[in-house]
Amino acid sequence: MNNPNLSVDTLQRRTSTGGTEEAAGISAEVSAGKFRKSPYLIAGAFFTVYLLLSARRHAANLSTGYDLGIFTQIVKSYSEFSAPYSPLKGPDYNTLGDHFHPILALLAPAYRAFPSSYTLLVCQAALVAFSVIPLMKWAHDVRGRKFAYWVGVSYGASWGLAKLLSFDFHEVAVAVPLLSLSLCAAGRQRWRAALLWSLPLVLVKEDLGLTVAAIGAYAAWKGPRVAGLAVAAFGAAATALEMLVILPYFNPVGKFAYWPAPTPEETGLLMQAAEAFWPPVKWLTVLMIVAPTGFLALRSPIVLIALPTLAWRFTSPNPFHWGTDFHYSAVLMPIAFAAAVHTVASGRVTARRLVPACVVGAVVTGVTFFTHPLHELVLPRTWAESAHVRTADELLAKIPDGATVAASNQLAAQLVDRATVSEICLFPRSFPPSEPPQWLIYDDKDMTDPDCAAGQAMEAATPDVPGYRLADRQDGISLFTRVTDEG
């Protein structure tokens, strides 16, 4: 009975029914054997779902230059043994001045073999799906197959992950499996593995050093004090170094791009602190993070590891950071579900109360399935190619490989793997290209570019775009080519 997948709790529950300890052990080993492939099958199923969702959105021109286009340019640069430049951010713009994500260089070999934006979507789907496996294995050891299936399905279908998969590609996809591995090891008190798995997070994004610090602090509290404090100090120092030195060094204006605006002098410290808890959408976000776990996460100290991410989001002046949209909550999903499993493993919830909690979590997951992106896979429109998309593909095909192009946001994502692409609407945080691009293409149905002055000029019945002539216009999509001295 030295099977590592066999927990003491499982043996106690099974021997209490009257069987011998030996018989219970054999039965548990058989059960563990049957379960062994299940985490991989569940992860494989979610990989398929994730990839279908993101790939179909990309095929329907719903992905964007901000951000799939930018990250494709980054990984493409790495695959060419170059610094991570992104023309969408600006000419010769080194994106290590925007966010600190050198870990994306690990995707370069895959992109070099398959140079396409779809490669990033495949890698993202695989990374996120893999994170299901450690959580399911731990849940099985704690409470058996049914609990493990509930954890795997609820976590894999959670709204935070769905938002990440439906909104292009982001570097935090790499953080999701690292957090799953680290926190499952911490919950099992395998401190060395927990700390080591957390360390690469400092290479994923600059704020995640604070999450590393939180994991180190948790280890110092519950396990090896010296090692935990060392990792906590390392994580905090990494964030400070990245925000105060590295990012400003590479940023064109010489500072970290996302510092909040200075607070007016008349705003007191108490008012500033209160603003971190208002408006109510912030409380809704917290509720939505723990609700899929049936609120089990609230009974484990592991949930405190979410505080650094919540702190920077809720103190940010950007309203997009406060709610449940976009990809910002993806890194909180493995924290919440690891906390839920830890709650059960530590005996903080009785078997009688566990079932209602799981029912609540399942209901929340079921409801959010229909309010968040995964439900798109069951909609007929997801699988139908519209006439507008066919027209866009036809006009995009007229742009030769290797050309320089200024494109509207959604069309930019379709071009970045074969052309040098900039953003035609010139987002406020972007810089115009140093040389006029050879082609312009604009889609007036692209609602991601509000108040686009360049686009409005191109939409005119007789457009006057200096230096360019209208090459084609169909279904609201305008294609311009640059006029050369030769003609």
UniProtKB/TrEMBL annotation:
<feature type="transmembrane region" description="Helical">
    <location>
        <begin position="116"/>
        <end position="135"/>
    </location>
</feature>
<feature type="compositionally biased region" description="Polar residues">
    <location>
        <begin position="1"/>
        <end position="19"/>
    </location>
</feature>
<protein>
    <submittedName>
        <fullName>DUF2079 domain-containing protein</fullName>
    </submittedName>
</protein>
<feature type="transmembrane region" description="Helical">
    <location>
        <begin position="227"/>
        <end position="250"/>
    </location>
</feature>
<feature type="transmembrane region" description="Helical">
    <location>
        <begin position="326"/>
        <end position="345"/>
    </location>
</feature>
<feature type="transmembrane region" description="Helical">
    <location>
        <begin position="354"/>
        <end position="372"/>
    </location>
</feature>
<keyword id="KW-0472">Membrane</keyword>
<dbReference type="InterPro" id="IPR018650">
    <property type="entry name" value="STSV1_Orf64"/>
</dbReference>
<dbReference type="Pfam" id="PF09852">
    <property type="entry name" value="DUF2079"/>
</dbReference>
<feature type="transmembrane region" description="Helical">
    <location>
        <begin position="283"/>
        <end position="306"/>
    </location>
</feature>
<keyword id="KW-1133">Transmembrane helix</keyword>
<feature type="transmembrane region" description="Helical">
    <location>
        <begin position="40"/>
        <end position="59"/>
    </location>
</feature>
<feature type="transmembrane region" description="Helical">
    <location>
        <begin position="195"/>
        <end position="221"/>
    </location>
</feature>
<keyword id="KW-0812">Transmembrane</keyword>
<feature type="region of interest" description="Disordered">
    <location>
        <begin position="1"/>
        <end position="23"/>
    </location>
</feature>
